[in-house]
Design brief:
Protein name: 2-oxoglutarate dehydrogenase E1 component
Shape: elongated
Pfam families: E1_dh, OxoGdeHyase_C, Transket_pyr
Number of helices: 30
Organism: Pontixanthobacter luteolus
Function: E1 component of the 2-oxoglutarate dehydrogenase (OGDH) complex which catalyzes the decarboxylation of 2-oxoglutarate, the first step in the conversion of 2-oxoglutarate to succinyl-CoA and CO(2).
Keywords: Glycolysis, Oxidoreductase, Thiamine pyrophosphate
Number of strands: 26
Largest sheet: 8 strands, mixed
Structural class: alpha/beta
């Protein structure tokens, strides 16, 4: 941006003028520096010995020893020069198209620093570097400058793997692998750049002032992404899954993905992307995705761009999860060769969003590895209005990728050949080593954050430079004219032809009507959108036969003879074997294992992940048995035929892992995908995924999803963070049959709801408040017959006591663990006219069957809703009117009474005695027992009347 006017305070590092980019943070200069001692020690000792010997031989052993010493010293210093350029040459590369980042050559990259001042003609031994055995210092210096300080800067010496470094070094330093394109290739690149520019120009003229988040200034990305398709295809890639934010998205959709221009113009004019009868809310055009096929050199590559919200980078884990699923479907998990994830980032977001690191962290983790992701950073050198020095604490936005030793290619966006070369090299590296790689394309935004923004409010000098800066195509056209590749006027002709095509498409858009939605094609064929949210969940046969039940029992209780399990696990398995022998006492974990095992046997996949999913946070699951001597794993459900069972202990991430599992479920409706929180409210860390994808993805983008969230929930005095899964937040998101929310109380009902999730002809995300104390509660058990015969998922669970309908005076409705507290107290006090009914599925709310039950209760006087959560939490505000509507349908003019904790800022107390007092009080109020003291902080609320007990 040039030198801005500041009042500098001498000695103040925050204000003292510094070398480096004008927008940079002064502290970055230190992070750019390297240790001379470390660099010297990094030289290969064997190579150093050879250098000395060769230099001595050149000097002649019979000559003056000082000459030998000088020749050897020259060689070592020359090799150190090479080494420093490999490590730090990118710092002197020509990266900024605007020329505003004043990147002076670091001192240690000069000949003077290495003692070669004025000695350009001196010959030194370098042992084969750049193909030279002996080379003049000046020639070596020129080669190093051209290689490492041109329009591409390579960061790769932070990689510890020698083979990977050697690969990149050879590709960068070998003449045949440098930036070289045929005349036809150069013409194709020019045509792509012109398409990118003219597309943005056309939109700007036809839709003046309309937001499009154009690519203007970064058009070199278009031929570069086409190179990814072409070279990826030749290297075995058959599918590419893209994720990106707003900038350039419409350009990528049109010019890379091949989405018809007329369709995008139709959307710009306010038209829907799908037929009106499909429904859904739709979304702004720069959030939408698409899928298509493109062919290069006779090789077809399927491509999909995943839709995303405005939350920058939130789509990243979704893309990786979808990639993993597609690799599994293609049987590509071992080679990771056929499906390539490509994530396109903004510079500020890549550096600033923590989800980027969470996704980078997946790159080498079993169960989440996708064989390397190609990251493309559109480096605008600015955020919305924020300069980089205020946006990050590192020299480059890509520095975060060094944490996983990903190589980084910094490239000047005004050189489309260089950007295309970088993408070609990136594909070759990824296909060879199956690891992440980053392309950091330095460019600029010709307009502001969007086309209606005024960027000179905050960056006047940068935008003065941009306004006078020539377009990429103009710079490149002149270069090709100078090379004799094209003639004068070729670019003008290409523009005219493309603008004519766009005008034809614009005219066609006026009569365009979408004729189909693409959400139930491919692997989703045969599934559909339920027509009736209330009744579509009925009549699903989820029970299994006795033969399968007994077979699963043997699988779940048989330990291989050579496997030494923990003695406590032995007792657990003995108790499980007793369940199958007696047919009684089936607990939560066994019901879950039966659901998983039966689905696998029927050919479905099951994928369960979470921070402690193998054992289970509460030592309840034991899906994985660890040999106590060798630590080898044995997974019983993996021994079953037909389907596939996977369980992974995930990285300590909620946002990233939940997004990954959502992406997996997006791609594979034939796998039951479950994410389990360590404790329910840990899902707070993934709220963006819940709000923007899980709850609203189908309505916005017509993308169905069957992801299951398991959130441990229940008030047992364990404090604010270990009690509530924030049920109220999920219920607030419920509308238009978008998700399912359940709070289940029996193992058999849990078994049936998991099987129902896969056996219905549609998919909806499901949130289950899973238990903690109920995992081993003596009342929360099921019998064998409840898994077989005519049994199915019960949205409403009847009372454990058989109270005649006409005798019921008060009905207590509740959900989850509190039901057993109520039942125990009711039975202890001998109350005979109060019925306790559990709502197992809160959304879609079972209003019709509840009304049928209420109608049978001819002497019902009161309906109570009892919950453990504070009044402003839990389900109360959601169920209040729904219960009243059900009562009215049953002919009863009753409104529900609230019995539970008072409103509270914290979801639960952390004091055991206070918790017990509150729990005792709220159950007493619900059952209409004796009044309790004020200190219990519970409330019974009647319609238009409130009374504290």
């Amino acid at each position: 941006m040039g030198n801005e006017n500041h009042d500098f305070s001498p000695g103040d590092p925050a204000t003292e003028p510094q070398a480096g980019p004008s927008w940079g943070n002064p502290s970055w200069l230190d992070t750019m520096a390297g240790s001379d001692e470390d660099l010297t020690q990094a030289l290969d000792p064997t190579q150093m010995k050879i250098v000395v010997e060769k230099a001595a031989a050149k000097a002649g052993k019979s000559t003056d020893p000082k000459a030998v010493e000088e020749a050897a010293g020259d060689s070592i210093r020359a090799m150190l020069l090479v080494r420093l350029y490999r490590v730090r040459g990118h710092l002197a590369a020509n990266l900024d198209p605007l020329g505003l980042s004043h990147r002076d050559t670091p001192e240690d990259l000069t000949l003077e620093w290495h003692g070669f001042a004025g000695q350009e003609d001196k010959e030194v031994y370098v042992g084969g570097v750049f193909g030279y055995e002996w080379v003049k210092v000046g020639v070596l210096y020129d080669v190093l400058r051209r290689t490492y300080c041109g329009n591409v800067g390579l960061e790769y010496m932070h990689i510890t793997d020698t083979e990977e470094r050697r690969f990149l070094q050879d590709k960068f330093e070998s003449p045949e692998d440098t930036i070289q394109f045929t005349p036809e290739g150069k013409k194709a690149i020019l045509a792509s750049v012109i398409r990118g520019e003219e597309y943005e120009n056309f939109l700007g003229k036809k839709y003046v002032g309309t937001k499009r988040f154009g690519l203007d200034g970064g058009e070199s990305m278009i031929p570069a992404l086409e190179a990814v398709i072409k070279h990826g295809g030749s290297a075995g890639v058959r599918e590419i899954i893209y994720g990106m934010a707003h900038r350039g998205r419409l350009n990528v959709l049109a010019n890379v993905m091949g989405k018809p221009y007329k369709v995008i113009f139709h959307e710009f004019s306010g038209g829907s992307a799908t037929p009106d009868e499909v429904g859904g809310s739709g979304d702004v055009k720069y959030h939408l995705g698409t899928s298509t096929d493109r062919a290069f050199d006779g090789i077809d590559v399927h491509m999909s761009l995943v839709p995303n919200p405005s939350h920058l980078e939130a789509v990243d884990p979704v893309v990786l999860g979808k990639t993993r699923a597609q690799q599994a479907i293609r049987d590509d998990l071992a080679a990771h060769a056929e499906v390539l994830p490509v994530l396109i980032h903004g510079d500020a977001a890549f550096a600033g969003q923590g989800i980027v690191w969470e996704c980078l962290g997946f790159s080498g983790v079993n169960g989440y590895n996708t064989g390397g992701c190609l990251h493309f950073v559109i480096n605008n050198q600015i955020g919305f209005t924020t300069s980089p020095k205020f946006a990050r604490s590192s020299p480059y936005p890509s520095d975060v990728a060094k944490g996983v030793q990903a190589p980084i290619l910094h490239v000047n966006g005004d050189d489309p050949e260089a950007v295309t070369f970088a993408c070609k090299l990136a594909v070759e590296y990824r296909q060879t080593f199956k690891r992440d790689i980053v392309i950091d394309m330095w460019c600029y935004r010709r307009f502001g954050h969007n086309e209606g923004d005024e960027p000179k409010f905050t960056q006047p000098l940068m935008y003065d430079a941009i306004r006078s800066h020539r377009k990429v195509s103009q710079i490149y056209s002149d270069k090709l004219i100078g090379e004799g590749v094209i003639e004068e006027g070729t670019d003008t002709q290409l523009r005219k032809e493309f603008e004519s095509l766009l005008q034809d498409e614009f005219d066609a858009a006026k009569t365009y009507e979408p004729n189909q939605a693409d959400w139930f094609g491919g692997r989703w064929a045969g599934l559909n959108k339920p027509a009736d949210p209330e009744n579509a969940r009925r009549n699903v046969e989820t029970a299994i036969d006795k033969k399968l039940f007994d077979s699963l029992g043997r699988t779940l209780t048989t330990v291989p003879g050579d496997h030494e399990i923990h003695k406590t696990l032995g007792r657990v398995l003995k108790a499980k074997a007793d369940m199958f022998e007696t047919g009684e006492g089936f607990d939560w974990a066994t019901g879950e294992a039966l659901a998983f095992g039966s689905l696998v046997t029927e050919g479905f996949g099951v994928r369960l992940s979470g921070q402690d999913s193998g054992r289970g946070t509460f030592s309840q699951r034991h899906a994985v048995w660890i040999d106590q001597n060798s630590e080898e794993k044995y997974i019983p459900l993996c021994q079953l035929p037909h389907g596939k069972f996977e369980v992974y202990d995930s990285p300590l991430s909620e946002y990233g892992v939940l997004g990954f599992e959502y992406g997996f479920a997006m791609a594979d409706p034939k796998t039951l995908v479950l994410w389990e929180a360590q404790f329910g409210d840990f899902a707070n860390g993934a709220q963006i995924m819940i709000d923007q994808f899980i709850a609203s993805g189908e309505a916005k983008w017509l993308r169905a999803n069957g992801l299951v969230m398991l959130l441990p929930h229940g008030y047992e005095g364990q404090g604010p963070e270990h009690s509530s899964a924030r049920l109220e937040r999920f219920l607030q998101l419920c509308a238009n049959d978008n998700i399912q929310v359940c709070n289940i109380t029996t193992p058999a009902n849990y078994f049936h709801v998991l099987r129902r999730q896969m056996l219905r002809p549609f998919r909806k995300p499901m949130v289950i408040m899973t238990p903690k104390s109920l995992l081993r509660h003596p009342m929360a058990k099921s019998s064998a017959d409840e898994f077989m015969g005519e049994h199915h998922f019960m949205r409403i669970k009847s009372d454990t006591a058989e109270i005649p309908d006409e005798k019921i005076r008060r009905l207590v409705l509740c959900s989850g663990k509190v039901a057993y507290d109520l039942i125990e107290k009711r039975d202890k006090h001998g109350v005979e006219d109060v019925s306790i009914v559990r709502i197992e599925q809160l959304y879609p709310f079972p209003g019709e069957p509840l009304a049928v039950r209420l109608k049978r209760m001819t002497n019902l006087k009161e309906i109570v809703w009892c919950q453990e959560e504070p009044k402003n939490n839990g389900a109360w505000f959601f169920v209040d009117r729904l219960i009243e509507e059900a009562a009215q349908s049953a002919g009863k003019n009753l409104r529900p009474i609230y019995a539970g904790r008072e409103v509270a800022a914290s979801p639960a107390t952390g004091l055991a005695k206070r918790h017990e007092a509150q729990q005792d009080a709220l159950t007493s109020l619900a059952l209409d027992l004796a009044n309790v003291g004020e200190t219990a902080k519970v409330t019974i609320s009647r319609p238009n009347k409130s009374k504290k007990g």
